[in-house]
Amino acid sequence: MKTHAVRAHASVEDLAREDQLAWRLAQVAVDPVAVDADVAEMIGNRVIDNAAVAAASLRRSPVANARAQALAHPYRPGAGVFGAGADVRVSPEWAAWANGVAVRELDFHDTFLAADYSHPGDNVPPVLAVAQHRGLDGRDLVRGIATGYEIQVALVRGICLHEHRIDHIAHLGPSAAAGVGTLLGLDAATVYQAVGQALHTTTTTRQSRKGAISSWKAYAPAFAGKIAVEAVDRAMRGEGAPSPVYEGEDGVIARLLGGPDARYEVPLPEAGEPKRAILDTYTKEHSAEYQSQALIDLARRLAPRIGDLSKVAEVVIRTSHHTHNVIGTGANDPQKTDPGASRETLDHSILYIFAVALEDRDWHHERSYTPERAHRESTVALWHKVRTVEDPEWTDRYHDPDPDRRAFGGRVEVTLEDGSRVVDEIAVADAHPKGARPFAREQYIEKFRRLAEGVVDASEQDRFLDLACRVDRLDADEVRRLHLAAPAGALTAPIRGGLF
């Protein structure tokens, strides 16, 4: 790996294209290096994971609305839409949109946390949609996905967006555009322009994950994927992007991030170095924001030791800066303690999540979020006794460069009414590669079966898994069939008419 120093430049400095971060990302995208076997296997796992969480969300209104929008844009050859029939094809940018919303709706697929946050599996829908549209095979598909992961992980390692209240999709637009560029075998100059366009048009504020969180939380990454496809199309036609998009005098760094004096370091593979970043990412066992994963596991472990939860006086979660400020008390969001809050808001409230996990000793992607569950009197009472505190030790471990010490959990101190305490801590989620029950192919398939049950027929599940488990060896026709169809009439959801 080579670390690239990135800063803002005055226009008079005339920063050469070859010294710009967007060009260096493009160079990674066009490197013809082969995909390692273990990386290809993990890509298959994440294709399965995306399909699992998409299947579980197909009846939800945001997903149904996105699907309706996509189906209003039929196109041949086109790409498939999760839930629609196998013969249905839409324009690839709209397939990326609909499938991206389905994947993100439940906040239940993979994650990478470093200087910033990300869900790198969001790269898969746009890359897959273009692969299906252009009739490309599994080898091309895997190469494109590997690039998407590599670039998003690199940007997340090097550039913090959250500090400046910029939403994490600003790293997704460039990574998805680069992934599509790899898939199509484009030259560096074209990928460079596509990356710049995608960044410029997907840099948005973080209000989508703040306060009263709406369904746009799921739509935002799908928007970045759709924009990335369109950016590649424009770049292929010879249209350019703002330049230098990161380093310019009025560019992203100078005006939206750290300012003219800021310095960032982005690690990227050198020419000929395999793209292995996907192996540093991890998926979720529970449908909730990633920083709650380990704490859900800890709540399930603590509950039997506490006994009567009505005797709890206070629960203090000592954790990292990010956890405290994004999903904890430090966010200063009153909605995080409101029983009438949206599912999307509760998903970003460790105060709610920890209380429910203590009571139920479980977590479910639907039952744990129902209004009835959120309004339960005992839950509300316990919920309002939970608070988070930033602990410098956990903040340091969150950013520790040593993967054996890096941690996304915390220490929980439960004080009972009689003054006794129950204390425990957890570093990483059980499903994390360093956790108690790391996810492997078997666990990805189990998750898929559990979430697809009752939505997708068993025979359709079998057909999809057969393809996903050998994704790097699929021919072009099989890539086009890398899709989940629901039985006719199975996807009933309340939707309203729009423009299309």
From TrEMBL:
Keywords: Lyase. Pfam families: MmgE_PrpD_C, MmgE_PrpD_N. Its EC number is 4.2.1.79. It catalyses: (2S,3S)-2-methylcitrate = 2-methyl-cis-aconitate + H2O. The keyword Ribosomal protein does not apply. One of its GO terms (molecular function) is 2-methylcitrate dehydratase activity. Residues 286-468 form the MmgE/PrpD C-terminal domain. Residues 20-264 form the MmgE/PrpD N-terminal domain. InterPro entries: MmgE/PrpD_sf, MmgE/PrpD_sf_1, MmgE/PrpD_sf_2, MmgE_PrpD, MmgE_PrpD_C, MmgE_PrpD_N. Belongs to the PrpD family. Monomer. This is 2-methylcitrate dehydratase. It comes from Glycomyces harbinensis.
